[in-house]
């Protein structure tokens, strides 16, 4: 095992890798509760989604560790789960079973792109400014969902949105949770989001806002049935062949594609694994990510992707795939803690959504705002996601404006032909959507 993962060459040990795996797991354990709550809003069984989340994370991380040998842990991604629930299912009225089939299709396409090497061409086709805008826009979208779930922002007939009743107990609990999580993360505590949820839940119990466990059975229990979601993606695969679902699949694929590439580079760079500005075994890492998405869709969850929280494990010394394998084991153990879903209310999970949004919004700094032809499509990409409650719409509007502003500016030669194809697809998307 030591030779396979090159412990000696990378200066690590079993103890260090175990600590790194546990650290990464704790840093991203919030997804076990936030994902079921998010997909539950789309009508999915929360118990089944909890199991699917843990299984997708466990299998995906195991493949990443054994095949790519990277200390990168996977799980259903934030942003894509929100897109799945609030844009595709609730916004467009697409059944969640069909949406799962779309996730499955995107995973299969991702595998083909990885095995054929086409991924490089696609990465180069999308301008970096739009990649950054998409990531930041998703961050604002997630934060907005968190604010509304917490009751901090509410619907208003006169102004569309307004400040909620911030003196109500549940809203105050969410605000408290947000403050605690922010303080922990500011202090450099990597698992601040997870610990913040624990503290918030305990305070909520003290004030009677969160159910108090009455015994061990309210904490540890049997694994919920996965029957409500298992295999639904395959059963409804024939429903994805529409223009609307094509855009949905492209969005799943696009966001996962670049989110994965960025996360892998960030984690590998921090671990000192990048050689000559290239990522060794990049194809295997991307295959692990796409295979995890297929597994996740099969068992019943939205797109599974590499988590940037993996840097928490790298920060304590994780350097090999054994870190990911250890985290995988903890996700398997987590299967027996499903009763805690009853304790994790929206007031407890909302701060996690808001903080993840903050983290994703940092990509705004990489957009070239001083160039108007770039600023316009980037701005509309970011703005339209929260305002239309749709990640796909934000991407579509930005990708339509990009070739227009670039051509008018006289920079048509800089536009990759693939962008013109996407321009046509997104124009058709709005036509057929109406």
From TrEMBL:
It is a multi-pass membrane protein. It is found in: Cell membrane. Its main location: membrane. It comes from the Bacteria. GO terms for cellular component: plasma membrane. The chain crosses the membrane at residues 18-35, 47-67, 74-94, 100-118, 130-154, 160-185, 192-213, 233-255, 329-358, 378-402, 414-432. InterPro entries: Azg-like, Azg-like_bact_archaea, NCS2. Keywords: Cell membrane, Membrane, Transmembrane, Transmembrane helix, Transport. GO terms for molecular function: purine nucleobase transmembrane transporter activity. Pfam families: Xan_ur_permease. Belongs to the nucleobase:cation symporter-2 (NCS2) (TC 2.A.40) family. Azg-like subfamily. This is NCS2 family permease. It comes from Oceanobacillus halophilus.
């Amino acid at each position: 095992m030591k030779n396979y993962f090159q412990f000696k060459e990378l200066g690590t040990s079993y103890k260090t890798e175990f600590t790194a795996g546990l650290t990464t797991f704790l840093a991203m354990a919030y997804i076990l509760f936030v994902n079921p709550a998010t997909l539950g809003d789309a009508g999915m069984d929360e118990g089944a989604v909890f199991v699917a989340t843990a299984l997708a994370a466990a299998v995906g991380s195991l493949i990443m560790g054994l095949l790519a040998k990277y200390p990168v842990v996977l799980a259903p991604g934030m942003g894509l789960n929100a897109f799945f629930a609030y844009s595709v299912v609730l916004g467009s009225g697409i059944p969640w079973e069909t949406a799962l089939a779309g996730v499955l299709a995107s995973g299969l396409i991702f595998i083909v792109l990885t095995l054929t090497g086409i991924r490089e061409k696609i990465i180069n086709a999308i301008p970096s400014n739009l990649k950054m805008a998409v990531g930041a826009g998703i961050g604002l979208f997630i934060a907005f969902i968190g604010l509304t779930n917490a009751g901090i922002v509410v619907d208003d007939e006169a102004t569309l949105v307004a400040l909620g009743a911030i003196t109500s107990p549940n809203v105050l609990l969410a605000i408290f949770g947000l403050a605690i999580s922010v303080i922990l993360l500011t202090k450099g505590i990597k698992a601040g989001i997870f610990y913040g949820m624990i503290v918030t839940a305990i305070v909520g119990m003290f004030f009677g806002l969160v159910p108090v466990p009455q015994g061990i059975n309210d904490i540890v229990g049997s694994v919920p049935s996965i029957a409500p979601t298992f295999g639904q993606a395959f059963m409804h695969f024939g429903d994805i062949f529409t223009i609307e679902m094509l855009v949905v699949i492209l969005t799943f694929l696009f966001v996962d594609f670049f989110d994965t590439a960025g996360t892998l580079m960030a984690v590998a760079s921090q671990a000192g694994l990048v050689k000559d500005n290239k990522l060794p075994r990049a194809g295997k890492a991307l295959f692990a990510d796409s295979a995890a998405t297929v597994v996740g869709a099969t068992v019943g969850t939205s797109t599974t992707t590499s988590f940037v929280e993996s840097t928490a494990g790298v920060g304590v010394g994780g350097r090999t795939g054994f870190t990911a394998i250890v985290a995988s084991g903890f996700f398997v153990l987590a299967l027996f803690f499903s009763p805690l879903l009853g304790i994790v209310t929206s007031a407890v999970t909302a701060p996690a959504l808001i903080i993840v949004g903050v983290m994703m919004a940092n990509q705004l700094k990489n957009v070239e705002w001083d160039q108007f032809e770039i600023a316009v499509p980037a701005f509309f990409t970011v703005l339209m996601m929260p305002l239309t409650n749709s990640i796909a719409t934000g991407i579509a509007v930005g990708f339509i404006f990009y070739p227009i502003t670039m051509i008018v500016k006289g920079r048509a030669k800089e536009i990759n032909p693939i962008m013109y194809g996407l321009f046509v697809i997104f124009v058709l998307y709005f036509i057929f959507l109406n």
